[in-house]
Design brief:
Elements: H1 3-14, H2 18-40, H3 51-63, H4 73-99, H5 117-136, H6 138-149, H7 154-161, H8 165-188
Length: about 190
């Protein structure tokens, strides 16, 4: 299905058509899977949070987005990437808190998730650096989120942000260099 059809369905969803949501999931599932896979490949190999579980949790959060005016498919997938990042980040913070004596929680066998503390710290360090970047340059922060976490192409990010691809490419390179420096500095302090 074309980007135009997805955009039309998103607009119908904006207008409150519940049937649009039923049509949307099968169409966007492949792309959501790709975004989730991008996240999961950065995790440790034995991480038991499955791509499907991440997609499902993100989708549940997406359908609760009542105030979003979807402009196009790239906008939808950019927000999807942001939500998935937050899910994994919250999981990492919870795991670290548990290691520090956090409370016990009853977990169903199906929902047990393993993330090493080290990977969790790396994700949190990157998130902290990304938050700092957002304070300095929110555009670069959004570009990193869409490119690195969401796996969107330069052209897709350009479409979402309504900027030229060359501008996105320049900001992407500068943001990556800045983040690399900040994460290294954070590791040594």
């Amino acid at each position: 299905m074309s980007s135009q059809n997805i955009t039309e369905i998103l607009i119908a969803w904006n207008k409150g058509e519940q049937s649009a949501l039923e049509h949307l999931l099968p169409i966007v599932e492949k792309e959501l899977r790709r975004i989730a896979h991008n996240y999961m490949r950065k995790e440790r190999g034995n991480h038991t949070l499955q791509t499907t579980a991440l997609i499902n949790e993100a989708y549940l959060k997406l359908i609760d987005q009542r105030s979003v005016e979807w402009s196009n498919r790239a906008h939808f997938f950019a927000l999807s990437a942001q939500i998935m990042r937050r899910i994994l980040l919250n999981h990492a913070r919870d795991r670290i808190a548990q290691k520090r004596g956090g409370g016990f929680e009853h977990l169903d066998f199906e929902t047990i998730q393993i993330m090493t503390i080290e990977k969790g710290r790396e994700l949190i360090a990157l998130d902290d650096a990304l938050d700092q970047l957002a304070k300095i340059d929110s555009l670069k922060s959004r570009i990193v989120e869409m490119r690195y976490f969401g796996g969107l192409t330069i052209d897709e990010v350009a479409s979402v942000l309504q900027l030229a691809p060359v501008t996105i490419s320049l900001h992407w390179r500068l943001a990556r260099a800045w983040l690399k420096k900040e994460v290294r500095t954070g590791e040594t302090s």
